[in-house]
Amino acid sequence: ESKRVTQLTGQLRNKQQQAEILMQSISDGIIVIDTEGKISLLNPAAAKMMGWAVDEAMGIDVNLVVKLLQEDGKELAPEQDPFKQILRTGQQNNSVVQLIERGGIGDHHIVSLVVSPILTPKGSELLGAIAVFRDVSAARQEEHRRADFISTASHEMRTPVAAIEGYLALALNDRVAKIDQKAREYLIKAHESTQHLGKLFQDLLTSAKAEDGRLVNHPVVVEMGTYLRQITDGLRFAAEKKGLLMDFTIGTGDGENKVTSGKVITPLYYTHIDPDRMREVITNLFDNAVKYTESGKIVIGLTGDKDVVQFFIRDTGNGIPADDIPHLFQKFYRVDNSTTRTIGGTGLGLFICRKIVEIYHGRIWVESTPGKGSTFYINIPRLSNQKATQLQTAEKQVVIG
Fold first, then answer.
1. pLDDT for residue 150
2. Contact partners, residue 19, CB within 8 Å, separation at least 6
3. What is the pLDDT of residue 261?
4. Which residues, at least 6 apart from 216, have a Cβ–Cβ distance to it below 8 Å?
5. d(CA 40, CA 172)
6. Nearest to 203 by CA among 292, 46, 91, 334
7. Rounded to whole angstroms, how far apart are CA atoms 32 and 30?
8. Closest by alpha carbon to 146, among 157, 156, 154?
9. 316: Cβ–Cβ under 8 A, 6 or more apart, which residues?
10. Which residues, listed in sequence order, are joined to residue 67 by a DSSP beta bridge?
11. What is the pTM of this model?
């Protein structure tokens, strides 16, 4: 029996040594915290990134050791703190943040941070969390250089392309030029191709700005019911021109509609967004719905609860294959089928939509059934009536000042 205990002790010691060797050799930073947010384990790579000694950081509150900012250098709001978030929700979270070395005297690292819960074997109780840091500073710098090149090239190319498009439009104007029918057909095709090229350059420029945070953004308080109704009225003609029905609907997710004297009072859904930017998103999704729907109906809808405003664009088109859905909002990704090959596109529209929605801490996704259509959903944080009134008052004071 004594021999067996000795063997087990040796095996445990070997496993512990193996775990320690593994932790020491991993180049990614690893930190383990308990349910109080105190560091119970970290490897040398994490300690080096943060400018702390391993022994010195043990047992200290993780927020005193790990100083994080948003990737662009702005302060993290309390609800954005990945460690507080996981201890509050128990849900894994991923983010790209700026890690500041101790005392702020060293380099600031751009890191990809994944914080995962540590649960009991049955998953019923949270024991703590494990965070994995990967330094992506060099990759981010390369991305910025690439985005700068795309941005500069796109900006420079837009001017000559716009000039060509303008001259082609003049040539197609009967009051300016006289051309035969055959030449007109060629010029029409050239004009359409030039318009497509101009759209490509504009999308490239917008996507580059979206990636490095240079998109112009002027958020104001917007009541989404009125806002979406106005947009729907403006888009209706494009759907009806193709023979599609168009509808706008408001419904609630929390039973907010109230009946007074026989009339239904619709709740006010306030958000804090740039109306021009969000119009780009809605118009892009609507244009896609029209392009890929041969018959049936397009619905723009609005709903929500006390925390979230949700609006959606639903079509009765061909739908999207399940394998394509996870990649749909990636840059340059297009579903490859006979329909998309005959309909032009840059593969940037949905990527830009996602980037704009994320500016407002929102979420965009799609649910689709091949042959039955698709529904694109957007969730945006909702403002209470009181908060909306406060912001509107502040906005008026800025305008007056």
1. 76
2. none
3. 41
4. 274
5. 74
6. 334
7. 7
8. 154
9. 293, 295, 296, 297, 298, 372, 373
10. 100
11. 0.63
298, two tokens: 């397009």
Q: Which amino acid type is present at position 311?
A: F
The tokens 């000042």 sit on which residue? 401
DSSP symbol at 76: P
Contact assessment for residue 69 and residue 98, using Cβ atoms and an 8 Å cutoff: yes
Token pair in block for residue 166: 């303008």
Report which of 225, 206, 212 is spatially closest to residue 146, judged by C-alpha positions: 212
> 258, exposed or middle or buried, with CB in 10 Å at 0-12, 13-18, 19+?
exposed
What is d(CA 33, CA 140) in angstroms, rounded to the nearest whole number? 28
Torsion of the alpha carbons at 82, 83, 86 and 87, rounded to the nearest 10: -150
Euclidean distance between CA atoms 260 and 191, whole angstroms: 56
Q: How far apart are CA 265 and CA 256, in angstroms?
A: 9
Non-local CB neighbours of 63 within 8 Å, separated by 6+ positions = 37, 81, 83, 84
Pairing of strands 93-100, 373-381: unpaired
As a whole number of angstroms, the distance between CA 129 and CA 114 comes to: 10
Token pair listed for 297 = 């109906």
SS3 88: helix
Distance CA 91, CA 116 (A): 7
What distances in angstroms separate CA 100 from CA 64, 66, 71, 80, 339, one per listed residue?
Answer: 11, 8, 11, 16, 49
Q: What is residue 204's predicted lDDT score, i.e. its pLDDT?
A: 81
Q: How far apart are CA 127 and CA 124, in angstroms?
A: 10
Q: Which residue has the tokens 């662009």?
A: 72
List average pLDDT for each run of 10 residues in the chain, which is 401 residues long: 58 57 74 90 87 88 88 81 88 87 72 89 84 87 78 81 89 85 89 85 80 80 94 91 91 47 67 93 93 91 91 92 87 67 68 91 91 93 90 75 52
Number of alpha helices (DSSP H) and beta strands (DSSP E) in the chain: 12, 15
CB-based contact 292:343 (threshold 8 Å): yes
Copy the structure tokens of residue 39.
């560091």
Q: What are phi and psi of 57, to 5 degrees?
A: -85, -15
